[in-house]
Specification:
Blueprint (H helix, E strand, L loop, with lengths): L1 H4 L16 H27 L2 H29 L11 H31 L6 H22 L20 H10 L2 H30 L4 H28 L6 H11 L5 E11 L2 E10 L5 H7 L6 E10 L10
Parallel strand pairs: 2-3
Antiparallel strand pairs: 1-2
Helix pairs in contact: 2-3, 2-5, 2-7, 3-4, 3-7, 4-7, 4-8, 5-7, 7-8
Length: 326
């Protein structure tokens, strides 16, 4: 008898992670563009005997590898979205991909700084014309990649919730949804770092060629390394918070408490954590003099907070109410 009615209380834990996100297609396009430019730079580096071009080509190869990891994260999350072994779906694969990308960014920054310091101590001859030409070409390609990924301008409105608490969560948080795609942000920062490197290289090469400031080339490398390090630390901070189940946003916790704490109800304990891009799970412990079924408190929680999995436990307060009780 119970088995026939269990479907009323059961639901999938995919939480829309089985959908192909726009960031996946964009990342694959950028991988193709970056890989093509990488081949050009490595080939011309060998042909013209330019270490600068060869180094930049190898640098783009590292970013192509990082972008491939980001693409793999999208594909893995989508294909395993219905795997029952993942208690809350595969949403955190997104954060894991972003965390991995951030680590690679940090490694890249260290390599940039090391090579720049090495060139200050041991200057090398630069083939200016070829290096400037390929640097400009690289800037154009990287600029196109930044435009394609353009993670600040995408909105995921075509979203179909799979849980009553998740139906219209994008009414207020459509923009936040995309900002919290850590995997896409990692890919975006990689191509942005490429564009920055090309821009600084052009500036340094022009200064060295026409003004004789040979030290500008390694100096710009150090400046670029510092900026990339800052991006990496920011992404590491945000993704590690998701992976370590840090408490969710304060404004969401406040709204949950406000929606429950009436008629002498009190929230004794609340755990809110991210299980995907702008998707949260929450466990609420409610203490009440006149306890109601958990469904009563679930229904009082706003449905646009991005809560995909809500658990409510109710306890009876045995203390005698007074006229001053709130």
């Amino acid at each position: 008898m119970y088995q026939d009615n269990l479907h009323h209380w059961q639901h999938t834990h995919a939480f829309d992670q089985d959908r192909k996100l726009p960031g996946e297609t964009r990342t694959i396009i950028v991988i193709a563009i970056t890989s093509s430019m990488m081949v050009v730079e490595i080939a011309t580096g060998y042909i013209f005997g330019s270490m600068a071009l060869l180094a930049d080509g190898l640098h783009m190869a590292s970013h192509a590898a990082a972008l491939t990891i980001n693409a793999f994260a999208y594909t893995y999350a989508r294909r395993h979205a219905h795997d029952a072994q993942y208690s809350f779906g595969t949403g955190k694969v997104n954060a894991l991909g972003g965390f991995t990308g951030a680590v690679l960014l940090a490694v890249f920054a260290l390599i940039m700084a090391w090579e720049s310091i090495d060139r200050i101590i041991y200057p090398i001859e630069i083939v200016f014309n070829q290096a400037i030409f390929v640097a400009v070409l690289g800037l154009i390609v990287n600029g196109a990649s930044v435009f394609i990924l353009g993670h600040h301008h995408d909105h995921h409105h075509e979203h179909n919730g799979q849980h009553p608490q998740n139906h219209d969560r994008h009414e207020d948080h459509g923009h936040e949804q995309h900002n919290h795609d850590h995997n896409l942000k990692a890919a975006y920062l990689h191509v942005l770092a490429d564009a920055l490197t090309s821009l600084l290289a052009i500036f340094a090469l022009l200064a060295a060629k026409y003004v004789g400031l040979m030290w500008m080339d390694p100096l710009m490398g150090i400046v670029g390394a510092l900026l990339v390090s800052r991006w990496s630390l920011g992404l590491l901070r945000s993704t590690s918070a998701v992976l370590l189940d840090k408490q969710g946003p304060e404004h969401i916790r406040t709204r949950i408490k406000q929606s429950i704490e009436h008629d002498h109800n009190r929230v004794a304990d609340l755990h809110l954590w991210s299980i995907g891009p702008d998707i949260y799970s929450v466990i609420v412990s409610v203490v009440a003099h006149d306890p109601q079924p958990p469904e009563h408190y679930k229904a009082s929680i706003p449905s646009n907070l991005g809560l995909a999995h809500v658990t409510v436990e109710v306890h009876r307060c045995n203390e005698k109410r007074t006229d001053h009780a709130r």
